[in-house]
């Protein structure tokens, strides 16, 4: 499978990061995006999208697994994975409707649905005090909506989010 780009939903969230980073830094807060792709792939995609925020690769670490945002194929095939502080059924992956939004987003990212859903969104906050790093907060799934500036606008629009497979990376909409 070829890599055609990052997850359209995650890309839409990341589109709002650039404007926040400078303000966060002046409040003694560093924001770093973390993905499992190799750093060269992340940097190329970052250039394509015009992003300037710090983006790190967790490719050769357990970071995403430690926070239950990544699962192995074996975990997924067991029928249940831990995400958002609960068990999530994965049996539906045995019969995926190719017209579903998740299947369409997987195809846009250049992969199949099972592979696509082994990575899930999450955010965590950490504090460094006296040389010790403390995990202070995590959010997943709908808990991330507040970080997605576009949703705040759509929630106030006449048709709301009108959720379906309409989302594209911003450089893929027709002009």
Describe this structure in words.
It is a single chain. The protein is an alpha+beta fold and 175 residues long. Helices cover 31% and strands 19% of the residues. It has a domain at 72-119. It contains eight helices and six strands; from the N terminus they run H-H-E-H-E-H-H-E-E-H-H-E-E-H. It has a two-stranded parallel sheet. Strands 3-4 form a two-stranded antiparallel ribbon. A two-stranded antiparallel sheet has the order 5-6. It starts with 7 loop residues before the first helix and ends in a 21-residue tail after the last helix. The model has no long low-confidence stretch (mean pLDDT 90).
Largest beta-sheet characterization: 2 strands, parallel
Query: What is the first-to-last residue Cα distance?
Result: 28 Å
Tally the beta strands: 6
Order the strands across the largest sheet as they lie in space. 1-2
Give the SSE string: HHEHEHHEEHHEEH
Query: How many helices does DSSP assign?
Result: 8
Helix content: 25-40%
Note the beta-strand portion.
15-25%
C-alpha-based Rg, rounded: 17 Å
Note the main attributes of this structure:
single chain, 175 residues, alpha+beta, two-stranded antiparallel sheet
Summed up:
The chain is of the alpha+beta class and 175 residues long. 31% of the residues lie in helices and 19% in strands. The protein has a domain at 72-119.
How are the SSEs placed, and which strands pair?
Blueprint: H1 8-14, H2 17-25, E1 32-35, H3 39-49, E2 54-57, H4 63-66, H5 73-77, E3 80-83, E4 86-89, H6 101-108, H7 113-116, E5 122-129, E6 132-140, H8 149-154
